[in-house]
């Protein structure tokens, strides 16, 4: 135990630095395989090495740390694996921006030198992220930290790619992909963010080749018409039956293209005739495959028009659109233009409008991997919390498309495929081949692309535990226990980890998926650089402390729902920490040389016959809190758990119990004083253990000052409910006494009797049991209601004159005022207040009796006036009743 006595105020900065260093140096976060213990393992969703942690990371890691600290205290063999992600597109973009500031591009450096610069970036920002996670209090096993491109993870990625390739589940082919012209790479379907944009529908005339009229097609992207290779109608659309098999002439290009019939066409949309551009629309690409249409790509990778665009070559896509519309109008091909709002796909990294393009890419066949992933969830081997995300997951997986995994980047896991420059053989190996397996040539060239970042992240639960080697950690901790992650990456990451875990480990990667929402600003907007509404978690920690931030991120947090980050929440959390600190200081100041007996430490065995009602009450409430908090933790309702603790600490332990025992602590009755100290200590140390997962730093600091056993609170056992402490009778009795105390305090406040002034009060009841409780609790009521004397009487006695009265659960409470206040002044005050209310009522009722007001005023204004009338009438009635009580009928 450290020296007794806490400083007057809590200083988070010194406390947090001291205890985190202590925990880490002592190895308390580190886990070895202990086969006699039940494992509990979490793999940290690896933050990207693109910069600093944001508030979403802070919440995600706070929730994980709460679960880890709790399970560690429950005695599980607990492992939390930390790590970071190389984040291909995002990190390369950051480094390229940095180079641009120096007047350089990646091509000036070349691939090797550029990658050296990226590794330097990674080392710098990785150190920053690790430092920030420590500041937050994350109790992860730093000795087992991983990086998605470390040697072990790279080995796992090579193993998986080669194995899937050999099984025919990875293939290379021409396919329509989403191309980001700014990032210069393909991005997967789920990396495209769709936003509603104002645009136009252009209705174009396509002349029939036989000269017999024209058809009208509608498009939002006239620049892509240069790559049209057909127009399509629905096979059951009677308007166009006669056109199927004919040809039309593509305006401006004068190329003949066929009219085809395909069920993809929506007869009700537009004119029922659509242009088919296989190279620049994913649906058109599928139509093209079914009808064996040519694919004409009219754009370059930078979204300018290529040589297939003829006279429009070199124009930006939007400039080309403008020019084509002009030319169509001039040629008489533009029928009309309508305003149209539609969803436009943007790159999730840079916000650029993506361009569908046909390109040679690497893909994973998803259907064979998806089926086991669907069954695992349907059979309950993986449980989503909240359950509603199960449906969202299944909807996506059941309709999954092949996954494009190649990226046109330099930073990332390079695709382990080589091409023989002599015979064209494709070689896929885990290690770099020295010669062609087909012709023996040494002229081999590796595929220049890298793998999608999510490919390596999909292996995270088992690669971090040593796979492909069968390590003791992999055998013991896999499947992991729970994945804690945001709802925004269920498809990016969660589903893919399930696919890969089932495929390569033949088991699910985790038993449960705890989904949390996003951290929004106070107005409910997503935090972003463009809005300038982001909050730096480290700045918050420096001002308020890590525990305050952690509590703020958990308070009001329910599984799956977004959380609004408000300044007043921070203030509330800090106030709670200060309340806990001050209460603990008070207890420590009174403990002196107190040491709890072994019976109190080990068995919660209090001498019950000597316990007072407040003692029995607080022990029973503490016991109920242990049970309710543990239940909330089990169902991942961490927001409810912290609410229960807040209510117990603030409203019950601090505001009632500590105040109730103060006279006993100053008493000469040694037995009563000793018992009060035992209860104070027992409940405080148990509550600190309950609070520790949420507020690790302040609880460690206070616990170290209390009498205790062991090195750290984080390795103390999690409290368990003890039926012997449950006392419903004491809770009921104390509730009555508290209601009486609050009633007396309210009556005093009504007439302005100051807190320090002692007055008399009378309570009456017709129930014998209540009278016994009040008589036994007389001293408590006198102390907490600031009374010189409390008289307990039977109901039915003579009316107590000139007294305020209230009723509480079968008890009448009276506060005699004769000789306590100046009654004449009180009469004047009451009459003045009644007159004021009469005036307000006259004004409000004048409005409400005015037909013109009722007709012309908005309904909400009328409702507001009616509510005012209701309040004024109630206040007036209360004042009249008080006047009658004090001064009779007149």
Briefly summarize what is shown:
45% of the residues lie in helices and 18% in strands.
General description of the model:
With 890 residues, this protein is of the alpha/beta class. The chain is built from 28 helices and 29 strands. The chain is globular.
What characteristics describe this protein?
890 residues, alpha/beta, 4-stranded antiparallel sheet, 45% helix, globular
Q: How would the global form be characterised?
A: globular
Helical fraction? 40-55%
Rg estimate, integer Å: 37 Å
- The strand count comes to 29
Largest sheet, if any?
Answer: 4 strands, antiparallel
Adjacency order of strands in the biggest sheet: 6-5-14-16
Strand percentage lies at: 15-25%
The overall pLDDT, averaged over residues, is: 91
List the quaternary state of the chains.
Answer: single chain
- Assign the structural class, choosing from mainly alpha, mainly beta, alpha/beta, alpha+beta, or little secondary structure: alpha/beta
Number of discrete helical segments: 28
> Which stretches are low in confidence, meaning pLDDT under 50 for 5 or more residues running?
none
N- to C-terminal distance: 68 Å
């Amino acid at each position: 135990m450290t020296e007794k006595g806490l400083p007057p105020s809590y200083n988070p900065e010194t406390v947090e630095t001291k205890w985190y260093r202590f925990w880490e140096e002592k190895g308390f976060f580190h886990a070895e395989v202990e086969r006699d213990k039940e494992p509990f393992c979490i793999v940290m969703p690896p933050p990207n090495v693109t910069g600093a942690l944001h508030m979403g990371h802070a919440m995600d890691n706070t929730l994980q740390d709460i679960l880890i600290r709790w399970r560690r205290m429950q005695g599980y063999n607990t492992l939390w694996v930390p790590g970071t992600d190389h984040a291909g597109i995002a990190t390369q973009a950051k480094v390229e921006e940095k180079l641009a500031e120096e007047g350089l591009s990646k091509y000036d450096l070349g691939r090797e030198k550029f990658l050296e610069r990226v590794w330097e970036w990674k080392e710098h920002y990785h150190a920053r992220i690790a430092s920030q996670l420590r500041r937050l209090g994350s109790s992860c096993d730093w000795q087992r930290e991983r990086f998605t491109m470390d040697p072990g993870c790279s080995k796992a990625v090579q193993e998986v790619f080669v194995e899937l390739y050999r099984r025919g589940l990875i293939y290379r082919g021409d396919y329509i992909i989403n191309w980001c012209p700014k990032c210069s790479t393909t991005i997967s379907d789920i990396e495209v963010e769709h936003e509603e944009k104002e645009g136009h529908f252009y209705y174009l005339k396509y002349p029939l080749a036989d000269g017999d009229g024209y058809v009208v097609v509608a498009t939002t992207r006239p620049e892509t018409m240069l790559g049209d290779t057909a127009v399509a109608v629905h096979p059951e659309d009677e308007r166009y039956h006669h056109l199927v098999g004919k040809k039309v002439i593509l305006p401006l290009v004068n190329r003949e293209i066929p009219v085809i019939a395909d069920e993809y066409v929506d007869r009700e949309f537009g004119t029922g005739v659509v242009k088919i551009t296989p190279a620049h629309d994913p649906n058109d690409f599928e139509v093209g495959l079914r009808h064996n249409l040519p694919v004409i790509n009219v754009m370059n990778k930078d979204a300018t028009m290529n040589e297939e665009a003829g006279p429009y070559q070199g124009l930006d896509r939007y400039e080309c659109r403008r020019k084509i519309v002009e030319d169509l109008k001039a040629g008489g091909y533009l029928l009309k233009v309508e305003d149209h709002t539609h969803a436009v796909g943007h790159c999730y990294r840079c916000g650029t409008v993506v361009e569908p393009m046909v390109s040679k890419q690497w893909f994973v066949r998803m259907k064979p991997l998806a089926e086991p992933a669907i069954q695992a969830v349907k059979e309950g081997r993986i449980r989503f919390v909240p359950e509603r995300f199960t449906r969202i997951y299944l909807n996506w997986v059941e309709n999954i498309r092949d996954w494009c995994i190649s990226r046109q980047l330099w930073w990332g896991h390079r695709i382990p495929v080589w091409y023989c420059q002599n015979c064209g053989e494709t070689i896929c190996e885990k290690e770099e081949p020295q010669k062609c397996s087909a012709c023996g040539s040494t002229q081999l060239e590796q595929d220049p692309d890298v793998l999608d970042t999510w490919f390596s992240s999909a292996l995270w639960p088992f690669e971090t535990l040593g796979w492909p080697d069968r390590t003791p950690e992999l055998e013991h901790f896999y499947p992991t226990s729970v994945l804690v992650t945001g709802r925004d990456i269920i498809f990016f990451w969660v589903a893919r980890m399930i696919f890969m875990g089932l495929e390569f480990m033949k088991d699910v990667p985790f038993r449960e998926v705890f989904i949390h929402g996003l951290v929004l600003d106070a107005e409910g907007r997503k935090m972003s650089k463009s809005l300038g509404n982001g909050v730096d978690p480290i700045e918050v920690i420096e001002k308020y402390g890590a525990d305050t931030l952690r509590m703020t991120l958990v308070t009001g947090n329910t599984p799956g729902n977004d959380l609004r980050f408000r300044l007043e929440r921070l203030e509330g959390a800090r106030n709670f920490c200060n309340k806990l600190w001050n209460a603990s200081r008070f207890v420590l100041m009174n403990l002196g040389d107190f040491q709890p007996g072994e019976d109190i430490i080990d068995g919660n065995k209090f001498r019950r016959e000597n316990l007072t009602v407040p003692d029995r009450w607080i022990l029973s409430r503490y016991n109920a809190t242990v049970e309710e908090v543990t239940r909330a933790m089990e169902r991942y309702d961490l927001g409810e758990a912290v609410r229960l603790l807040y209510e117990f600490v603030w409203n019950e332990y601090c505001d009632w119990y500590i105040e109730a025992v103060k006279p006993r602590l100053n008493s000469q009755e040694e037995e009563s004083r000793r018992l009060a100290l035992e209860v104070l200590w027992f409940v405080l140390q148990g509550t600190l253990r309950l609070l520790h997962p949420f507020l690790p730093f302040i609880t460690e600091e206070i616990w170290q000052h209390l009498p205790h056993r062991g090195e750290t609170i984080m390795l103390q056992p999690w409290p368990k409910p003890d039926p012997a402490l449950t006392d419903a009778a004491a809770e009921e009795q104390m509730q009555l006494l508290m209601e009486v105390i609050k009633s007396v305090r309210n009556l005093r406040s009504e007439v302005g009797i100051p807190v320090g002034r002692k007055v008399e009060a009378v309570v009456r009841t017709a129930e014998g049991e209540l009278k016994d409780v009040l008589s036994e609790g007389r001293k408590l009521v006198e102390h907490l209601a600031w009374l010189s004397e409390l008289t307990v009487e039977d109901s039915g006695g003579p009316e107590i004159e000139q007294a305020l009265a209230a009723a509480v659960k079968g008890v009448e409470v009276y506060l005699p005022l004769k000789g306590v206040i100046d009654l004449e002044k009180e009469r004047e005050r009451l009459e003045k207040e009644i007159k004021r209310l009469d005036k307000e009522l006259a004004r409000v009722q004048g409005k409400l009796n005015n037909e013109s007001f009722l007709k012309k005023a908005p309904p909400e204004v009328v409702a507001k006036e009616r509510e005012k009338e209701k309040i004024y009438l109630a206040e007036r009635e209360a004042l009249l009743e008080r006047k009658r009580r004090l001064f009779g009928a007149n």
